[in-house]
Design a protein that fits this description.
Oligomer: single chain
Largest sheet: 16 strands, antiparallel
Number of strands: 49
Distance between the termini: 60 Å
Mean pLDDT: 75
Radius of gyration: 37 Å
Structural class: mainly beta
Number of helices: 6
């Protein structure tokens, strides 16, 4: 067994005894994919006892794994890597150190029952478990003799681990080693010779007291069970353990694990001349077995016994974290949590505070974890924002050209309390239930827009779209979680959540029903790359249906933050993720690239992630100003994309770039065309990209082909000398499209919000700027009746 640093799990690896090369990894991949949590490693005894066993034919291995609350015995075929049998060990605790019988029908192992360690056997055919030793001592590390008539095991007696032999027919126990030193698990070389590790030293050589006190170093020894002769073959400074006999004709070669200067290695040796020879009688003789007595004893006072109080000894659980970040929309967000718990971890009090932009979330909860069914009580106040920029649904479609994204900012404020419970079915599945009372308030931030929207919704639908009132929600959810996480997020596995919520009509409360399904799958690529795929669907019905908003950050990369909203929503997303810092420093360590260049390249890989929004026939884009009006309606490309005119090729070292302005208040869309090259730089004037030393040929060809496309005007806005351009000129061009180009691509507007999907689609949010083009008449008329307030 070895530690896989890539997977951060223990694997069973088959090595060649001839040259030490890796033959195969028998447990490659994550353990969860094989149906268990992890391979069992011994705790206090570590590698002094065997972890796995080989079958008599050499084609199978046996080892223990952790599954749910108990451990299970795994029988795996070495040739096919297929797990042939799984035997749950529910009648014993902490089973370890399996060993096949010579006929391969039975496996012996050590385990606890009633906190006492004994030697057991399990029949592979009937799965019956039998206790062989049944004594008051701690027994472990069993191994079958070659004829299958006896078992040699370790027992801790009088403070030391000694070898015993158990006759399976008579159940007679015979002590094989003596003295005040320890032995490890043994293996049979032949029918009368054992190999093992021991802390014993040559009894004929005196040992200084200080060396004897700190000299518990394991070395390789053999024991002849017929004559009692002991032979020492190694005298190491660090230690040699886990001795096994290699399958060779002579049977003289032994492999073992060495420990020196914090590292483990595998070595082999041939049994030739021993370093020392001794007899078992030199270390002691059979005598009365005295149970281990602890050097420190404590007497419990019956009068002082009492039950711990439920909230007694509460303390602060760790240092409260402080998180700060930036959304894809440029808004700051952050938060922190303070948790108090008791010494058993059964009770928790949590206070959570978070903020995104100026919208805050505050909650306080009590969590009870003392039973398998966990429950909690929570009180909260949460304000979230979204963009209600759906003309024809939320407000009159004639207002669409002048209502910007910032003006359409709306909030949902939820205050109330909930009670919920969690019942884990197993390690990977659980059921959640919840109930509560919630006060809901949804409205636009701008009072004038809110008044116009309310009037339009009353006239069109007969009731407001935004919900304001009290809800009494009841919910149930099923969750499956097999995801493996790393510092940068999910690495492999899958997650699924299916939830149903209903808010019945009770008096004047609001009523609705919602179902939400979310499935995610993470495929590991190489060491830390991830192909992340996600599918989510949401549907809400009732008198006051709920709606979801998404986009940006972890949902629909490449779109504006919260740029989708609707009561019937479905979307699919696929992303390729590569940790930037890890990849950059790996390249720096290899001396291939500069850190800044590597970071830039990996950043490009991360942001280019495909997304697929799914929507009904009634779903529509917001405004045509969210699309470029030159040529096709595709979103603007990055600086390294093709020129605006596909037929015009610019010089290879100076490329054309189309950068989109924010739509101005004058109902015109403005774009700037910049010819960039070696002398390109960014102007100090806000909202303008300039170029110095632009080639004259590129300027003439650009003026002829008009980068703004058909139906638009194109003119050079400024031409002035720039002190930073080494004598060159600075050229900035302005493109202005008519106001009519802002009409939505589909003129059909839905008449019922409660029966149709509300979705909107908008590409990445452009930079802020102001157009110099004169306003249209419709824009001036609408601005007289509706004040425009834009958050820059």
């Amino acid at each position: 067994m070895t530690l896989n640093r890539k997977d951060r799990e223990v694997d069973i690896v088959l090595l060649s005894a001839k040259d030490g090369s890796i033959v195969r990894n028998l447990t490659s991949g994550f353990d969860k994919d094989s149906g268990f949590d992890h391979i069992v490693l011994l705790g206090e005894r570590w590698n002094t006892m065997p972890w796995l066993a080989w079958g008599p034919k050499g084609d199978r291995i046996a080892y223990f794994v952790r599954t749910e609350k108990e451990r299970s015995l795994i029988i795996q075929n070495v040739l096919t890597r297929k797990i042939e049998e799984r035997i749950p060990m529910k009648s014993v605790d902490e089973p370890e150190s399996p060993c096949f019988s010579p006929d391969g029908r039975t496996i012996t192992f050590a385990a606890l029952r009633g906190a006492v360690g004994d030697i057991y056997t399990v029949d592979l055919a009937t799965k019956a478990v039998v206790n062989l030793t049944t004594d008051d001592f701690d027994d472990f590390g069993p191994t079958y003799s070659l004829d299958g008539k006896s078992i040699v095991y370790n027992a801790r007696i009088s403070g030391n681990q000694k070898l015993f032999r158990l006759d399976l027919a008579t159940k007679k126990k015979t002590q094989l080693t003596f003295g005040t030193f320890d032995e490890t698990g043994a293996q049979f070389i032949d029918d009368h010779t054992l190999v093992f590790s021991s802390t014993a030293t040559d009894p004929t050589v005196p040992v200084e007291p200080e060396v004897a006190k700190n000299g518990n170093i394991y070395n390789i020894w053999t024991l002849d069970t017929n004559t009692g002769e002991l032979r020492q073959y190694t005298d190491a400074l660090g230690g040699n353990v886990s001795a096994v006999v290699l399958n060779e004709a002579a049977g003289n070669k032994i492999a073992f694990v060495t420990y020196y200067k914090g590292e483990y290695q595998i070595h082999t040796l041939e049994r030739k001349e021993p370093l020392h020879t001794a007899a078992t009688a030199d270390f002691g003789a059979p005598g009365p077995i005295i149970d281990f007595q602890a050097p420190l004893q404590h007497t419990l006072v019956k009068a002082n016994e009492r039950k711990k109080g439920t909230f007694e000894k509460m303390f602060l659980e760790g240092r409260p974290p402080i998180n700060v970040g930036v959304t894809s929309n440029g808004d700051l967000f952050g938060g922190s949590q303070i948790s108090f718990g008791d010494v058993l971890g059964d009770q928790q009090f949590n206070i959570f505070v978070a903020s995104i932009s100026q919208y805050r979330t505050i909650s306080a909860s009590y969590v009870n974890l003392s039973r398998r069914f966990q429950w909690a009580l929570q009180g909260f106040s949460q304000t979230q924002f979204f963009y209600g920029q759906q003309g024809g649904y939320f407000y009159d479609p004639s207002l669409t050209p002048i209502i910007s994204r910032d003006l359409a900012t709306a909030t949902r404020t939820v205050r109330g309390g909930t009670a919920f419970g969690i019942y884990p079915i197993d390690r990977f599945h659980r059921v959640e239930i919840s109930a509560g009372v919630v006060q809901l308030n949804e409205e636009y931030n701008d009072p004038a827009l809110q008044a116009l929207a309310t009037q339009f919704q009353q006239n069109t639908l007969g009731q407001p779209v935004f919900s304001n009132g009290t809800l009494v929600p009841f919910g149930v959810a099923f969750i499956q979680e097999t995801t493996i996480f790393r510092e940068f997020g999910p690495l492999a596995g899958s997650t699924m959540r299916i939830a149903y919520d209903v808010s019945p009509k009770i008096g004047n409360t609001l009523s609705r029903q919602s179902i939400d399904a979310d499935a995610r799958y993470y495929m590991r690529l190489a060491a830390s790359g991830v192909l992340a795929m996600r599918v989510r669907g949401f549907r809400s019905i009732g008198d006051f249906p709920d709606f979801q908003y998404m986009g940006g950050n972890s949902e629909m990369h490449g779109y504006d933050y919260l740029s989708f909203v609707g009561q019937n929503v479905a979307f699919a997303d696929a992303e390729l993720r590569f940790p930037i810092i890890e990849a950059a420093f790996d390249a720096v360590r290899r001396g291939r690239r500069r850190p800044r260049r590597v970071l830039r390249q990996h950043r490009r890989r991360v942001v280019r992630q495909p997304g697929l929004p799914l929507r009904d026939q009634q779903a529509r884009h917001r405004d045509a100003d969210s699309r470029l009006q030159h040529g096709s309606g595709d979103r603007p490309r990055h600086a390294d994309s093709r020129p605006a005119d596909p037929g015009q090729r610019l010089p290879s070292r100076r490329r054309a770039r189309i950068v989109r302005h924010r739509p101005s208040r004058r109902s015109r869309s403005a774009f700037r065309f910049t010819s960039t090259g070696r002398g390109a730089r960014r102007s100090t004037r806000r909202g303008k990209i300039s170029s110095s030393r632009a080639p004259a040929a590129a300027r003439r060809s650009a003026s002829r082909s008009s980068p703004c496309g058909s139906g638009t005007t194109f003119r050079r806005e400024t031409q002035r000398r720039s002190p930073q351009s080494h004598g060159g000129t600075e050229n900035t061009f302005l493109c202005a499209s008519p106001a009519t180009s802002h009409q939505p691509p589909r003129a059909h507007l839905a008449t019922s919000l409660l029966q149709r999907t509300i979705l909107r689609d908008q590409p990445n949010k452009p930079h802020s700027s102001r157009s110099t083009a004169p306003p249209s008449r419709s824009g001036r008329d609408l601005r007289r009746s509706l004040p425009i307030r834009s958050r820059m």
